[in-house]
Specification:
single chain; about 220 residues; alpha+beta; six-stranded antiparallel beta sheet; three-stranded mixed beta sheet; 9 strands; globular
Amino acid sequence: MTRWREEKPVPTRLPAARLYFEDIEEIIGILVRPGEITKVVFQIGKEFCDDMRDLPKIARRTTDLEVLVVGEHYDARFGVNRLITQWTTNGLAKEVAWAAFRKIEALFEKRKLRWASLLHSSVMVVALLTFILAMTPFVLTEVVPSGHVPDIVRLIVTPIATILILATYMGLRHHSIVILRNSWDQEAARDEFRAKIVAGVVPLIIGALLTLLEEYLRHKYWP
């Protein structure tokens, strides 16, 4: 009697990441097989090109990029959109596909957006937690016998709920993002700094402002 084990398929989904021009170039180098005559086509939105140097002329950054590599005996795709980042191959031997995946996986590990990856990998759980956070101030009002939630509780819960809800929204608004400049370019560095500021500081400011607004309205209309 012959026994065998089912082979594990090569993963196609990739984590959310912030990619740069040199990362796309590296991915193409991984997908192009030595000795094969290949054609590479790029798509951003509805625009196409076959020269990577034309990509920055189409967009400075994008969340909608597809790369198609067509060889004599195989083809491979790498794509980024707002919901998912993935790659697929057709015609490659299993061991060759696995080797390519491990190289791409290592690249993504360096560029991973960990918060966005976590959110996109468990959307239903995140949606439930966000709903619970959003309803917490109202639920507290109902369950407290006097109907009056202590100020300290409101001051703690409201900004925390606001910050988490905003952070969740910002993490889910796109999957990966491709900045069509090299990571060492000053403009790319400024883009990354601005992204970190928006992701970290803006929710804190909005949470604090909402808390102040809530306190002002409560004292003015419900003394």
